[in-house]
Amino acid sequence: MDSRIKKVKNLAVVLNCDYSGLSIIQELGKHGIQCVAMDCFRSIGTFSKYAKFVRCPDSSKEELKFVDFLYDYCKMQALKPVLFPTGDNWAAAISKYKNRFLEVSFPCVGDWMAVNTVIDKKKFYKVGQEKRFLTPFTICNMRDIKDSHFPLVAKPRFRMSSSNQDNTELFKNMSRLRLTVFKDKEELNRFLKKERAFSEHLVFQKYIAGMSNKMYTVGIYANHEFEIMALFTGKKVRGYPADIGNCVVGENYAVPDYVIENTKKVVKELQLSGIAEFEYKKDSITNKFWLIEINPRSWTWIGISPACGVSIPMIAYRHLVGKKVEYTVSRRPDGEVKYIRLFQDVVNSVVRYNKDYPKWHKSLWQWILEIKKCKKVEYAEFNSGDWLIFLMGLYQIVKHGLGKKLMRIFGKKRSSNDNNAKKRM
What we know:
Elements: E1 12-15, H1 19-30, E2 35-39, E3 51-55, H2 63-75, E4 82-85, H3 88-96, H4 98-101, E5 106-107, H5 112-119, H6 121-131, E6 152-156, H7 168-177, E7 180-182, H8 185-194, E8 202-206, E9 215-222, E10 228-240, E11 246-252, H9 257-270, E12 274-282, E13 289-295, H10 312-320, E14 328-329, E15 337-340, H11 342-356, H12 364-372, E16 376-379, H13 387-424
Parallel strand pairs: 1-2, 1-4, 2-3, 4-5, 10-14, 15-16
Antiparallel strand pairs: 6-7, 6-8, 9-10, 9-12, 10-11, 11-15, 12-13
């Protein structure tokens, strides 16, 4: 065979191509793996030079249409593609029909029983308490609430899942009510009365004190024998909003051994496979780590893992296509590698935190000096020579920032005009 002929490799189909999907596309693309950015709209990852965009039905509204579409797409390929769902609704749809997808692909997601258990927070926390998975105390019966249980926090059972009906309004309200904290029964009762329509979609749990920088990630890839083959540990440095926001700046960071052992225990007992993120929170009062949730798919800042010596996307891909992989774990000194969503962090630090959390507010020059001290930085928008991503990231910040500002300005003008009109009547 002519050595100049490249060996055909299995496609990688990445579903939901926001920043978590983008990181997988870039990492696999750098290793010569052809990627498909599959999404129901033009998310940022669909503009990567390493991927071809393919539009598909929205699995949160048209689950069966999406399943049929993806199955047919996979069936057309010369080799079985590897499927990387990077959002709950995509992971749920593929997991639910995993046996069917195994005919034509290699799904990087766990079996439905395990995935359904961790996506449905009511089920997960019930199992967590029974099996002592380090999950916080969760209320099973509202009549059993005692003063000692406060402060409590409300969490959505689902923030997003696959479905054959349009649940946009429900998901929107779940995001709105996400992590509402109550200091006593009076606050909780007012909330239950006001949000009666959504109470059945919420779970109530003991609040663990701390801002978003108290959140730690244990990112894994587990094989079909439920053994962890790749392990990364890190922590959020800053999220937005400051208390509950998704990671904007993260860094590699070691966690205590009991946290790692708990993660392995959960993987084994729930029989979880594929890529997953275990989110722990370190109580700012007691310093104890609590397992807050498990995402049965990649997470927003998985792009940090290759720079830490444990490329979770590549390890998952190689293993799923039948290559031998060794157990790999990140062992870099704490804080040596940082992941930054450049544009968002600048805007947050210089503008938004001034109102949201002044402690994290800084001038542009202070922000620059802080970044200069970092030994190694992985920028979400500026990676692998993917210039269009850089421009799209900048465009998104300008569009959303200016758009909201204009809406506020015109909203005030409209309100003022309405008031003047009423006075003239």
